[in-house]
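Entry 14. Ran structure prediction on the chain below.
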Amino acid sequence: MRADARGNREALLAAAREAFLTGAADAHVKEIARRAGVAVGTLYRHFETREALLEAVLRQEVDELCAAPARLLVRHAPDEALRRFLLLLVERAAMGRGMAVALESVMATDSPPYDDVRARMVRAFDRLLEAGEAAGTVRGGVGGRTLLRAMGGICGMHAMEGWQEEAVRITALLLDGLRHGARSGAQTDPPPQ
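Output, C-alpha cells:
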C-alpha cells in the first residue's frame, strides 16, 4: 500500500474509532470521512461498507488488548497481570458506548463475524490463566472462554448508571474466586524487572 493510501486508511480508522468511543458509532460515513479529511469515495476504497470499517476498528482494539497479556506478564506476577487485564477490559468498555456494545458482542455471544477475534481473546485469557495456575496463584480448571463470557456479562452492564464502579467491584469478586483454591505455598514473587 502506498504511503498516502496507508495514511488515508489510518486516518479513517482513527476517525471511526473516535466516533465509536464517543458513542457516535452510528455516525454516517460522510461524517467519518469528513473527520478523517478524505472523500467518501476514499472511505469506500478502503472499506466496502460502514460495517467493515467498524469491524476494522474493533479488530484494531482487540489487537491492542491481545498484546497486553505478554507485556503484563513481564512486569507483574501472573495474578496481578490477570487483575490488570480484567480491569483494562472494563476500562476499554467504559471508553464509549459503541466500544462497550462491540466488546460485549465479542465476549458474550457466539456471533460468527467475530469468531477469530473471540478465539484470540480466549487465547489471551488462557495465557494469563495458565501462568497463574503454574505460579499457584490462580485455580486450575477455568478456561479463557469461560472468563471471556464472564467479562462479557460484566461489561454488558454498560447501560446502567454508574456501571463502571460496579463492574470494577464485580471484577474483584471474580478475581477472588479465581484465586480461591489455588495451590498453596507456590512462588508468588513478581518476575525480575
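The chain has two domains: 1-48, 55-179. Will compare against last week's run tomorrow.
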